[in-house]
Design brief:
- This protein has 310 residues and is of the alpha+beta class.
- The chain has two domains: 20-108, Phosphorylase Kinase, domain 1 (2-Layer Sandwich); 113-300, Aminoglycoside 3'-phosphotransferase, Chain: A, domain 2.
- Helices cover 41% and strands 15% of the residues.
- The strands form three sheets. The chain has a six-stranded antiparallel sheet, covered by helices on one side. Strands 7-9-10 form a three-stranded antiparallel sheet, with helices on one face. A two-stranded antiparallel ribbon has the order 8-11.
- Helix 4 (145-156) packs parallel to helix 9 (250-275) and helix 5 (162-169) runs antiparallel to helix 9.
- It is globular and about 60 Å long.
- The model is unreliable at 300-310 (pLDDT under 50).
Length: 310
Amino acid sequence: MQRQASTHSDPETAQLEAALFAWLGRRGLLSGTAAREILSGGRTNRLWHVRPEQGDRVVKLYREQDGNPLFPNSHDLEARALRHLPAGLAPVLCDQLDTPFGPCLIYAYSPGESWVSDPAPIARALGRVHAAPVLTDLPNASDGSAALREQTLAILDQCDGGQRNRVRNAMPTGEVAPSRVAALLHGDPVPGNIIHDGDRVTFIDWQCPLIGDPAHDLGMFLSPAMQWIYRGQVLSPAERQLFLQSYPDPETVRRSNALTPWHHWRMAAYCLWKMQRGAAEYGVGFQLEFAALESSARGAEGVTANDSEV
């Protein structure tokens, strides 16, 4: 299902929910009697599925940003992305609000299920996102190995202990030049942020969109850690191959392959950052990512963005 729904909550969340929806009701934005349930799939913000007369909605209440070095949590950027993108690729934005409880978006509910199998439609849909008109004034994605090195070392600077040194010492070798491509990127196209309904693929959770090389999004989707955390298993070699074969731009695929060790290295550093802040589920993700880093680094020796193939 699209995020696990529940009518139960802890006392703190129940109190917040009652106050928030009373506030929304007093402003005529949502009926206080509309059926609603908590969407518990969100790992950063609080979400509710609401069923008012005007159609199913998602109410998303943002938590304060926690300095996440890879996935910022910006309600303003998400609102801009939802206004910019065509319906189908992203939910339709209904309202953007500053509430006493924090920033809040209300957008149309996307029916369907979180993605779990057949990566081909996801690759094609990402291609449509990357071909959309660029949204200006977004953060830039790290482009090329030098930028990825700088970003990953900055993440490791926020970590400590022997594991930090282990990751630092595993830095890939070889250089991949920046692409200079300026495409619209989702920034976090992991399985939990992809809703699949028949032939329709909708990307949700647009709070960290970027401008840059589409290889960034491909690397995020292919990440063993993100696949394990959000769907409970990594992509098989056949699934990875199908995803890359289905993406519409071969040059982006070549760059993605050339950058694979760098993407694994960055994600291993990020998993370590999460682990050291109490997110125990990232421990398995770290081990998966580090193993993929070692394997891809061996296979990528001598490979460049010009000669890497699917």
